[in-house]
């Protein structure tokens, strides 16, 4: 399915999971993008960091727990997951609380990385 | 009055608006994405709580987000049945949308 | 106690409809009456019979229909909001009926509490 | 259409117009409520105060300008319009900028008024 | 220049669809090409032919159809998002087609800019 | 980079998040409810603008909300055509949702 062009894609996740469908349906776009041989990265800033918390249990809320999908991303060769340090700190979330390996970046580094992309899609 | 808030205070101003209008004897219930305000990492929530206002959080929504172990002291977790009981116990209910 | 419920958002996109349904279930289990669920704004999109979500996810529309069938809950879709969004008799799921906004005001008057779920 | 019960209804408007439909469809509920002989009041707080600004001109945006409806409320005997002073001040909006007569209340008075209602519906 | 457009919200409830349509009109008037408009999340609700808004308001669905018919713009509705929300061939408005998410990624690759309209 | 923001800064955190990531040479365009941030009454917007970032507002949305006469100095009003030109002129575009 490659189009012969390789672009740098960044998917920016700013929202908590479950309150809205953006995190779940955003992840579906990320998975599809893996089939196109592009340079894909994911950024988690602001409430988006909550998407990666360990121990999500949606049984009582009656919704589908899609958090295991973040662990499956590696199998799709999507390995560039960036989390903003200031967002973690403002929420009292530690890197050890996250369910996948990520690279933690300061806000300035995150802004620089965004500035290097060709396509930025925020959910 | 039972005030219901459903958005993260990091994303929206609804919790702040609610707390600015809550009065002694009222209860505030955090549901959906607002449950992130009930964690130890969100000390600002309790700091802004007016005197005499009690704060509750919906545990199914806290669990869904992996935050069940992070509940701050002074906030009471309730299930959907507890949500119903709160609505019945307070004479009025107001959702902050 | 008699509860009226107002749902302002459609299924899946936001959690409002989930929260409202869970509240109704819990209220009925606790012996209360859910006098009416009124669907307004994008809430009218909860009433389309054409939804077909993935097998491993909840079926939000069917859940509402079951609530109507099992407990006789009155599910009312606002006609004006529904016309704006393409919900008509043709695609209306079982258990729902289309009526006017007056049904919301009436519900707020008749119920002991009106609980609103939205964005 | 009176149900023989008179309740105190308050419709709380917290959102700017046009970015979402809540202000417009909220107004439709207010108009219907007039037929039920209830005690109806409207509160405008936070960005809801923008709903009442004079001079709304939606031609270029291609949307329907519904702001004249606020002037028609009086004809439906809906005359209790309350605007929160702190919300006006935070937005640099003066009472003279508003297209209808309102009563400006401080936050404390607004909270007290909310506390006297039977039904509070927020849009 | 070639623009790809992504619409994430349904008609009327939020302004996203209005803004996206205005952008497309202006882009075409300025001599640009709108390569595709992809409807995702609740954006799929822009594609129902059953909407019937008040006479004095804009008809958002028909406006999109006209854009497709007059300028050949490719209007693509995400199939997975559409199934969750009850948009199927049966109620699909003219000018829209249902396809996979790959069409969004392809649009982002082929277009010079992808402009996103959402909540 | 062209950053697009569509929500009021009184209601959501998106404008703040955007401005915290905007860099010299970037442009920020306020559309829909975000236009309220372009008024003289919203001085906080310009105060938070990083150096070298230019700020635009969509005039049809400003007019719709009755705010056309309230535009703050230092902010450029554009119509939909101007919106298109901004997207074309900047090498990238990012909507803050």
Instruction: Tell how many strands the DSSP assignment of chain B holds.
Output: 5
Whole-number mean pLDDT of chain C: 98
- CATH class of chain B equals Alpha Beta
Structural class of chain C: alpha/beta
CATH architect. name of chain C: 3-Layer(aba) Sandwich
Strand arrangement across the biggest beta sheet of chain B: 4-3-2-1-5
Q: How many domains would you count in the coordinates of chain C?
A: 1
Shape of chain C: globular
Q: What profile does the largest beta sheet of chain C have?
A: 5 strands, parallel
CATH architecture of chain B: 3-Layer(aba) Sandwich
Secondary structure class of chain B reads alpha/beta
Q: Major sheet of chain B: size, sense and barrel closure?
A: 5 strands, parallel
Overall CATH class of chain C:
Alpha Beta
CA radius of gyration of chain C is 13 Å
What's the arrangement of strands in the largest beta sheet of chain C? 4-3-2-1-5
Quickly describe the structure.
The complex is a heterohexamer, with 2 copies of chain A (123 residues), 2 copies of chain B (97 residues) and 2 copies of chain C (119 residues). Chain B is an alpha/beta fold.
Characterization of the model:
The complex is a heterohexamer, with two copies of chain A (about 120 residues), two copies of chain B (about 100 residues) and two copies of chain C (about 120 residues). Chain A has about 120 residues and is an alpha/beta fold. Chain A has a single domain, classed as DsrEFH-like (Hypothetical Protein Ychn, Chain: A, 3-Layer(aba) Sandwich), CATH 3.40.1260.10. Chain A contains four helices and five strands; from the N terminus they run βαβαβαβαβ. Chain A has helices at about 20-35, 70, 85-90, 105-115, and strands at about 10-15, 40-45, 80-85, 105, 120. Chain A has a five-stranded parallel β-sheet. In chain A, strand 1 (about 10-15), helix 1 and strand 2 (about 40-45) form a beta-alpha-beta unit. The model of chain A has no long low-confidence stretch (mean pLDDT about 95). Chain B is an alpha/beta fold and about 100 residues long. Chain B has a single domain (about 1-95), classed as Hypothetical Protein Ychn, Chain: A (3-Layer(aba) Sandwich), CATH 3.40.1260.10. In chain B, helix 2 (about 45) links the parallel strand 2 (about 25-30) and strand 3 (about 55-60). The radius of gyration of chain B is 12 Å and the shape is globular. The mean pLDDT of chain B is about 95. Chain C has a five-stranded parallel β-sheet with strand order 4-3-2-1-5, with helices on both faces. The two termini of chain C are about 25 Å apart. Chain C has four helices and five strands. Chain C has a single domain (about 1-115), classed as Hypothetical Protein Ychn, Chain: A, CATH 3.40.1260.10. Chain C has helices at about 15-30, 60-70, 80-85, 100-110; strands spanning about 1-5, 35-40, 75-80, 95-100, 115. In chain C, helix 3 links the parallel strand 3 and strand 4 (about 95-100). With about 120 residues, chain C is α/β, with parallel strands linked by helices. The model of chain C has no long low-confidence stretch (mean pLDDT about 100).
């Amino acid at each position: 399915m490659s189009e012969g062009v390789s672009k740098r894609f960044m998917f920016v996740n700013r929202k908590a999971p479950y309150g809205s469908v953006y995190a779940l349906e955003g992840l579906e776009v990320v998975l599809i993008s893996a089939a196109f041989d592009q340079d894909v990265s994911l950024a988690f800033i602001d409430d988006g960091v909550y998407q990666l918390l360990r121990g999500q249990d949606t049984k009582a809320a009656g919704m589908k727990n899609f958090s295991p999908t973040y662990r499956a991303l590696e199998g799709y060769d999507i390995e560039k997951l960036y989390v903003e340090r200031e967002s973690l700190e403002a929420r009292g979330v530690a890197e050890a609380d996250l369910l996948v390996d990520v690279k933690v970046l300061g806000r300035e580094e995150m802004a620089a990385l965004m500035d290097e992309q060709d396509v930025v899609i925020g959910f | 009055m039972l005030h219901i808030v459903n958005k993260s205070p990091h994303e929206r101003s609804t919790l702040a608006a609610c707390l600015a209008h809550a009065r002694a004897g009222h209860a505030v219930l955090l549901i959906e994405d607002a449950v992130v305000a009930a964690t130890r990492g969100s000390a600002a929530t309790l700091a802004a709580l007016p005197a005499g206002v009690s704060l509750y959080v919906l545990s199914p929504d806290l669990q869904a987000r992996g935050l069940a172990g992070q509940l701050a002291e002074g906030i009471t977790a309730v299930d959907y049945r507890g949500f119903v009981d709160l609505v019945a116990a307070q004479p009025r209910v107001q959702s902050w949308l | 106690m008699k509860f009226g419920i107002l749902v302002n958002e459609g299924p899946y996109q936001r959690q409002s409809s989930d929260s409202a349904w869970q509240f109704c279930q819990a209220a009925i289990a606790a012996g209360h009456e859910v006098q009416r669920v009124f669907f307004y704004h994008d809430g009218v999109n909860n009433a389309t019979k054409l939804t077909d979500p993935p097998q491993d996810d909840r079926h939000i529309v069917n859940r509402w229909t079951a609530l109507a069938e099992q407990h006789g809950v009155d599910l009312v879709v606002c006609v004006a909001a529904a016309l704006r969004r393409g919900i008509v008799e043709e695609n209306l799921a079982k258990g729902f009926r289309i009526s006017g906004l007056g049904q919301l005001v009436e519900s707020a008057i008749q119920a002991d509490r009106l609980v609103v779920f939205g964005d």
